[in-house]
Amino acid sequence: MLLLAMPTMPQNFMAAPHEFVSVLPMDPAHVVAGRPAVVEVHLRVANGMHVNSHTPSEDYLIPTTITPAAAAGVQWGAVEYPAGEMRNFAFSATEKFSVYTGDVTLRLRVTARAGEHATTATLRYQACDNRACYPPKNLPVQLMIVAK
């Protein structure tokens, strides 16, 4: 008889069967060279799902973050995250959590030298439904900045 040992995970932490967050298609961001500007990244959280906000209500929760990669000719500033929506769920009817659902817009501050700049950012999030949270994901985001 062959027995296989499988590592155990908490019941509320399951493998995600598919992506629960998508980045909506983006046109190149046209900015004025040398001047501060904003690049918006639009996300869609799948119906019935939520992700922790950038400022989750508990220390043990994983915040949603976006981290732009360093790129020649591009200087990144602070990211503006929307406020989370305070909601409670079946797994904790009395406690409210700061989450994002549906469409979410993240605003990245940027100053770019003249030219076209293809770069990336990494979106980190943890998706949950009303019963379970799934492993955190890192989603690459393609960015194109055209500065004139």
Describe what this molecule looks like in 3D.
The protein has 148 residues and is mainly beta. The chain has a single domain (21-147), classed as Thiol:disulfide interchange protein DsbD, N-terminal domain (Immunoglobulin-like). Helices cover 0% and strands 52% of the residues. It contains no helices and twelve strands. The chain has strands spanning 21-23, 29-31, 37-45, 50-52, 65-68, 74-80, 85-89, 92-100, 103-112, 115-125, 127-128, 137-147. A four-stranded antiparallel β-sheet has the order 1-3-9-6, with no helix packed on it. Strands 2-12-10-5 form a four-stranded mixed β-sheet, with no helix packed on it. Strand 7 and strand 8 (92-100) form a beta hairpin. The radius of gyration is 18 Å and the shape is elongated. The relative contact order is 0.31.
